[in-house]
Write a structure and sequence with these properties.
Length: 227
């Protein structure tokens, strides 16, 4: 299997008009010792901080703010590595793509597992959301090969918006604490529902919707081109 040619990166997000100039400024003012590889490591460090924040929130909800700080650190490292490489014209496309996205996958697993081990989110729901996120990631990588197009935004939503939503969820869990609703399921009895689990369930459904619609559309396009 031959490697795909240079691909086009598509990241058309709501926060793009703010994020792109900020990343260019950060790249232009980055110290010489800060390399793209170090930025990737900083992104992973952010994931570890998030994981620890969620675990420690079992001790005190104030640690949700540590998790939110981790999202900022993760954004800085994960978003700046490629921008810095392009700014300094030191890109290594194959190596960079491989390192960036293998560490991304490991970091996302760490984040969602940590979320599932926090006091207000069920582990099952966190794992379900992780499945949706990884499915969409796998689809993005496959499309990079077959279409030479690396698409990481869907309906103006991308990793940056997901981080912002996660920080908002952290703040809500900190201020409102444990909230549960009792729900009757007829002959099946009753159960307790958490609005935080419901929110994560909505995220899962949105991710699966993007996955299915994109996969079907891309499959039809490829079928037409290769008929």
């Amino acid at each position: 299997m031959t490697p795909p040619p240079e691909h086009t990166r598509i990241n058309d997000i709501f926060l793009g008009p703010i994020e792109r100039p900020a990343l260019r400024w950060l790249a232009a003012h980055a110290p010489a010792w800060l390399t793209p590889n170090i930025c990737t490591g900083i992104g992973v460090l952010g994931g570890v901080i998030i994981f620890l924040g969620y675990i420690l929130s079992n001790i005190h909800p104030g640690f949700f703010w540590l998790a939110s700080l981790g999202f900022l650190v993760n954004w800085y490292g994960d978003s700046l590595d490629g921008t810095l490489a392009r700014y300094r014209k030191i890109e290594r496309p194959a190596f960079g793509f491989f390192i960036d996205h293998t560490t991304d996958a490991a970091t996302q697993v760490l984040i969602f597992i940590g979320l599932g081990l926090s006091p207000y989110i069920s582990f099952n729901m966190a794992c379900l959301a992780l499945v949706g996120y990884l499915l969409l990631s796998v689809l993005a990588y496959i499309r990079t090969y077959v279409s030479n197009e690396f698409k990481i935004s869907y309906s103006k939503l991308g990793p940056t918006e997901i981080r912002v939503l996660a920080v908002l969820l952290n703040a809500i869990m900190f201020f409102f604490g444990a909230v549960q609703w009792s729900q009757r399921w007829g002959a099946l009895g009753s159960s307790l529902l958490s609005p935080y689990d419901l929110a994560l369930g909505v995220v899962f459904l949105v991710l699966i919707l993007f996955y299915i619609t994109t996969a079907v559309r891309e499959g039809r396009r490829l079928a037409t081109e290769n008929s």
